[in-house]
Fold this protein.
Amino acid sequence: MKALVATAYGPPEQLSIAELAVPRPGPGQIQVKIAASAINPTDVRVVAGDYRALTELEFPYVPGNEFAGTVTETGPGVTGYQAGDEVFGQAMPRQLSFVAGTNRPSLSTGALAEYAVFEADTPHLAHRPANVPVEQAAALPIAGTAAYKAAAVAGIRPGETVLVIGATGGVGTALLPLLAVTQAKIIATAATAADGEILRGLGADEIVGYDDYPSDVDVVLNLVLHHDRLPVAARALRPGGRLVTIIFPEPTQDQLGRDDVELHYLLDAEGKLGGMREIAEAAASGRLKVRITGSYRLDDAVQAAVDYMREHTVGKIVVTM
């Protein structure tokens, strides 16, 4: 089978398309013929060596955390799926098991390939609703889940002011429509006027630049900033405000530079706040959707990864097989 692979640490330009053996499912696993997968920050950051302090990769390494496809084979003990089922979800490549949780972890052989093997007994996989297209299903799992859960954790109330930092990404473009129905004032960051118009169309009331945060907001939803930039985000909050961040690793209150605001870190590896079934229901009803900004074939997946890192995009980049 064809797969996007890394053979050494380095930038996305050093990735390649290679022929690998088709993985076979073991007990409790399913083999899936991948129809589409999406590019995510983890895919390029782990290959760049950003997580070497936590794990050393073994090469060749196949990235890919989210997918949509068709079950082609089931291993012993699998009862929830059968060959021919249309499925979608998110799963960490097995070498990244340290962020996958310990209770029914969702792991795979890497979804940026023509075939991949997944653990069947996990809340992070589900049947794909018939009215959710394959590319949308492949783009939904991580961004859709993060958006859905961030909105829930933030507990936004009517009349509050919310600042969304990183609104043009996959999570942000899924999150804004969810926030728009809360009757709160939504302020979103954007780099260009054109991006701002897109975000307004998704539900933002006001657009600001990355160096022009407002003050005295009730909630900050951080979708992109790392630890060293969190104090800047926290300064936008009123006393008693709430900062919700999705960026790994988990920050501490001290890193905010403020002890008068709440800090919430969202990494629900166990699926305690809901899993892919809830995302499937929200997507099927039309309440949850991710903006896809680019679609590439697997033969062009190296370029997809490069464009993801080097080009400014609004929404998700999807690779189809």
Q: What stands out?
A: The CA atoms of residues 8 and 115 lie 22 Å apart.
